[in-house]
Amino acid sequence: MLQLTEAQALAYLGLKIADARYGKQLNELEGKELQEVMAQAERQYRLEEKVLAAPESQQVHLPEATLEDAWLRIRGRYETEQEFEQALALVQLTPKSYRLALSRELRIEAVLEKVASRAEPVSDEAVARFYHQYPDKFTIPEKRRTRHLLITVDENRADAGELLVLQQMEAIRARLLKRPELFSELTLRHSQCPTAVEGGQLGLVTKGLLFEALDQALFEMQAGDISPPLRSPLGYHILYCEAIIPAENTSLEQARPKILEYLQDKQRQQLQKRWMLQL
């Protein structure tokens, strides 16, 4: 039976680590990057060998269908079999050795999943304790339904360009103060932002999403207010705060499923780490 060699396993791990750390193919790395990737691959390989040698590994069965599904998903990233084989050949792998390395990886994942399954269920008390310990995590921030109108400044005209835009914006604002319902129409006519086709809609905006000057002004406005012209790196804006949706707290019952999932995942990961430290 064909066996996976250490060199092939390291090449497989190197492929995955190079992509995760640098977004590159292993054969594209050189110098320090290559050294770091292969050093990490070596450490990971040694730990994985301990996982595979543990008694739990003997209790794991990897269905052929699971391997085949993973294999087809990877193979599907390449247009042709030849392209796939050429990519593997660059790191001294073949389709057969790659499949063996993939099988090894899936077996390791199955072992770790088996270990994690021993985690104790998360209690209702733990969920409630987490909810009250971190209230900020369960606050839905205030939102403001906002529209804007943008006119850019011709930098080639220096101060004259700024003045012309400001004059135009003040004239537009004067009309809007009298008839706010014209905001969509005037935005479509004058705004130089792509949102003009939607009446300048920015949707529901939370604090911190806009340029600083715009953000500060918007969250000092009342519902129905129209701002004075506001400068940003893009030009001058007029903001229309259509409505304010107050901040609200998510109840414990609403938050329970997400807290439970988070605590369960954390508990499983901690159990896996403790188990691996004992290998």
UniProtKB/TrEMBL annotation:
Coiled coil: 24-51
The protein's Enzyme Commission number: 5.2.1.8
Keywords: Coiled coil, Isomerase, Rotamase
InterPro entries, per database record: Nitrogen_fix_NifM (IPR014282), PPIase_dom_sf (IPR046357), PPIase_PpiC (IPR000297), PrsA_foldase (IPR050245), Trigger_fact/SurA_dom_sf (IPR027304)
Single GO MF annotation: peptidyl-prolyl cis-trans isomerase activity
Gene3D superfamilies: 3.10.50.40
Protein name as annotated: peptidylprolyl isomerase
Organism name: Marinospirillum alkaliphilum DSM 21637
